[in-house]
Amino acid sequence: MKHVIIGTAGHIDHGKSSLIKALTNIETDRLKEEKARGITIELGFAYFDLPSGRRAGIVDVPGHERFIKNMLAGATGIDVVILVVAADEGIMPQTIEHLNILSLLQTKKGIVAVTKTDMVDREWLELVLEDIASRLQGTFLEDAPIVPVSSVTGEGLPQLVKIIDELTAEVESRDVHLPFRYPIDRVFSKTGFGTVVTGTLISGQVRVGDTVEVYPQNLEARVRSLQVHGQKVETAYAGQRVAMNLAGVQVSDLERGNVLAAPGLLRPSLMLDCRLELLADAEKPLANRERLRLYTGTSEVLCRVVLLDAEFLFPGETALAQLRLEEPVAVLTGDRFVVRTYSPMYTVGGGTILDAHPKKRRRFRAEGIQELKLRESGGDLQILNQTLLNYSDQFPTESELFRLAGRPAEQLSDALETLQEEDLALSVVVEGATHYLHAEYLQRLAQRAREAVETYQKRFPLRPGMPKEELRSRIGRQASPKLFNSLITLIASEASLESRGGVVATQDWQVVFAGPYARMRERVLELLQASPQAPPDVNDLATQLNEPSERVVELLAAMERQGEIVRVSPELTFLKETVDEVRQLVVSWIRENGSITLADLRTALDTSRKFALPLLEYLDAEKVTKREGEGRVLHPQYVGN
Length: 641
Prior knowledge:
The chain has five domains: 5-170, P-loop containing nucleotide triphosphate hydrolases (Rossmann fold); 181-261, Translation factors (Elongation Factor Tu (Ef-tu), domain 3, Beta Barrel), CATH 2.40.30.10; 269-368, Translation factors (Elongation Factor Tu (Ef-tu), domain 3, Beta Barrel), CATH 2.40.30; 407-511, Arc Repressor Mutant, subunit A; 516-634, Arc Repressor Mutant, subunit A. By secondary structure, it is an alpha+beta fold. The strands form nine sheets. The chain has a six-stranded mixed β-sheet with strand order 2-3-1-4-5-6, with helices on both faces. Strands 7-8-14-11-10-15 form a six-stranded antiparallel barrel. The longest helix has 21 residues, at 439-459. The chain has 19 helices and 33 strands. The termini are far apart.
């Protein structure tokens, strides 16, 4: 079944709420202040059973200029607008501003209801109708039906209902299979229920029991119950006004402007790339970095507009721009928005979001401008190719890639398959998730990896290669360690690198003791051979070599990897053959005597506790021996001779 939202628009005191009550018998003004002052302040909601059997939701908006932000919140998701113009006053300033807002949001269908006809004579009414028709030329309502009505006498209401029914029949059904998205326009607590929110479900569907995410806070909530038009339902669909009772969040956690959506669907952003249109009746050009109020969905945030391809934006013209926000918003590429001046507040323009998660752009850069124009008018294959190239450093999954491209998965799945067939889109699977990157990005990544590894090897010539984690921090910190480990395979073949355990090196890399390192190595071997059972410690070696201890440690690590020495502790190093002799001595001793003590080893080696104890602890760590009481026995896992 098709679900439709009807919205009102128009100047204050032109009879919007009275018209809705006459049509539905529902009072949309619910606040005491509204009833006392006779004006609408907050959004009002009703529903309407049409002759065709369709039930349409109705959003009644305030007409006062002070409450335009409330009107903007209610304009989200409107399918058909009833522009209300009072016969006794005709078109007024807020009529024009509301009309501009609806045009900027690309509302497609509408009808003009000329109210209060019981208060004017026929001649005056004809003049008003003529003026309205003239003023609507060039707008999306230029061919809209104009229906004189009276909420008091009922004149014209049957005709209005008939036309509304016809217009709603022409509205395209929303795709309920798209991901669920629901901007919140009201938050309150209800006794016995807890947190309740209302809004227009703009895409997808939601069921009782579903887990949803609150953006931009990234809070998780569960749908406890649903109501549509005051009736409990198990499932709500796009195009319906929906009240949700949420578990897991408090009223204080939420506010108008938040968005409920499928978990992981949205990513809050502080920048938006867009095509910005300045209204033809704007009072002055828009300057670069001007502070504006941005309205998208039901949210209002302050922003600075950075004009990317123009010095000034003149009335009636458009420009590519980047909006830099003072608070994060959660939107999708393709969403519409409206901007108003900071102070005094009036609507000046709006447009379409071309990239909901852009990188910071500099003005008048041909590459960036070309990229945004491609996003604006390019085909699916071009847009997906450019998106993948731009966001490969984030290693997106398929759903993330499609979201960044800003087009439905049904449109982009074939394009992704084509990119893979042409070896432009590469994939890496980690823990069941497939991540994508562009072949051109891989080449750049491989080049950076090669440069990083070569620089590292020059700086540390005695090391076997660059640790993977350090390389990840240099060139791929967005990737998890597991993902980067898989990427190394792709990078290595492109950059002639090898992955050797926990390090990465150039394919021909070998540790060679040359120059001063060769002389240091020879001197270390001499010193260890001179006193094999009681060798100098690291500090002694550094003193005798007249080298910093850090450099000596580096040398010893390389010599150990070469199999020349064994570091039995951070301070002590023995020749490998010395350690082998000690191992053989200890094993033989235990086999003859059942165990060996520290004192036994000290005596056998004619050395001190300083050297004998680290040797025994090393053999314990190597699982040659095992401590038992005061001595050591052979470890159960020892299988040596």
